[in-house]
Amino acid sequence: MEILQTICQLVVGLGILNVWLLRLKKKTPYRGGDASSIKEEFSVYGLPELLVWVIGAVKVSAALALLIGIALPTLVLPAALVLAVLMLGAIIMHVKVKDPAIKSLPATGIFVLTLFLIFIQSNTQI
Asked: Which residue ranges make up each domain of the chain?
């Protein structure tokens, strides 16, 4: 189970870093509406530009915490909780703007993986 947890931490952590650091200004098939960047995507959702940077900083920090959590497991639960809430918010935003379900696939996948990490961490701390 430890190997599966580590794989989940790597997938989630590196996935979030990829989106927020490498693909920030790139068009992907998963952006909300017809947005071609994260900034435009937040605009499609009706969210202020300031939230791009706040949510980005929180997501990048949580992703780094998940990666560091491979060595320091106490970081995993809080990071997974934060990301689960943010991914749920992302899914809700896709629904709000009536995106096709495929657009929320990455957020849904990350949400499921973070729920798995929360479940594993909750059971190991009891």
From this structure: 2-124
Mean pLDDT, rounded, of the chain:
95
User: Which stretches in the chain have pLDDT values below 50?
Assistant: none
pLDDT tens digits for 61-71?
999 999 999 99
- Fill in the amino acid letter for 25: K
| Sign of torsion over alpha carbons 49, 65, 22, 106 | negative
Please give the single-letter amino acid code of residue 77: L
Name the pTM for this structure.
Answer: 0.92
3-state secondary structure string across 5-57: HHHHHHHHHHHHHHHHHHCCCCCCCCCCCCCCCHHHHHHHCCCCHHHHHHHHH
Q: What is the largest CA-CA distance in the chain?
A: 45
